[in-house]
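Hello Y.,

Per our agreement to keep a running log of every chain we model this quarter, I'm adding this entry. I've kept the format consistent with earlier entries: sequence first, then predicted structure.
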Amino acid sequence: MKNLIRIAGLIFATMLVASCGMFGDKDEELKPMELVNFDQTLKIRKIWSANVGGDAEFLRLGLQPAGDGSRVYAASHDGNVTAFNPETGKQIWRNKLETELTAGPGVGEGRVVVGTQDGYAIALDAATGEEQWRVEIEGESLARPLIKDDTVIMQTIDNRLEALYLFDGRKRWTLVQSAPVLTMRGSASPVIVGQTVIAGFDSGRIVAADLDTGTIVWESLLSPPKGRSDLDRLSDIDGSLAVVGQDVYATGYQGRLASLASESGQVLWNRDVSSFSGVSADWNSVFTVRDDGEIVALKRVNGNEIWRNASLLRREPTLPVPFNTTVVVGDFEGYLHFFNNIDGEPVARVRLARKAVTAVPLVIANRLFVQGDGGNIAAYVVVDDRPKRSQPDIAEDGS
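Predicted structure for the entry above:
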């Protein structure tokens, strides 16, 4: 009954948002921003592309590439889990699981774990793709599975964390958080700092739990619900969390972007930013995309704004991800946009495919891996075409 109420509420919210668009003063204001030409100052080259599997357009799933240093893994909605050579794109193995996948893959400790639409977690051998176990977690997951030591953490859309033993999938502990009547479809993938699992929930809370026992270490209300209606009070934390050192960065819908101390949950700083895509970070900056599509960069140490870029308004951009000297963003038409990470100016644009990119891009070393909703995956590098030096920097005779 509770699920039916939540589903009905979500349908109502969707209709209400749509009606706002129908009766707006200017329809033009609601259209996606048109792309404009610019002088591309950075060369991006596709080094390989491959097919992952079934079309996932409009489903908003938690499927995105993952890597372990030797392979890149990707999963498709129609049940394919595939391992690729990250240098060449050559397929190493593929397992057709014959079930609809919604989350993952998560990678670690020699295992690849995915979540299914009908509420199962499935673990595969990372070297061969052979299925190791399949257990019911009693809920759909849209969050990347987290693997640490001998534990797998699965987060379900009904606000539960399930800890499973990596070896056989047996349940280790469960943590349940209350859910509001109306929520958005999605889940924030949990992260880990030391032996503490940190997760965001639809209530607007960030919760830290002990990896071994599930005991709550601290809770922090990141986005207090505001307003009278259930729609106004939406405060879901559904986007990516970021960790740099001992600091955790998170943002919620109709809420705040905040930096928290991982050991205590103390809020170090916060800013009013509404986002359902989450946060990414490097050593200097944190990046997010507002719910209207505006990209924002803030100083990591104090939250002061560095730059904003509104060129992708209403183009449904993904979370900006640091890559080389840029941040990269996918959009609903399959474009990848590269912005200078210092000032936010556009420096390059390429197109992965004709269908949307909703999965957060993956960066491993100097390579960018992007999975599209049409079932394809591609790898990119920055081309360094600077002229080679004709003379050594230091004279050979030491003078």
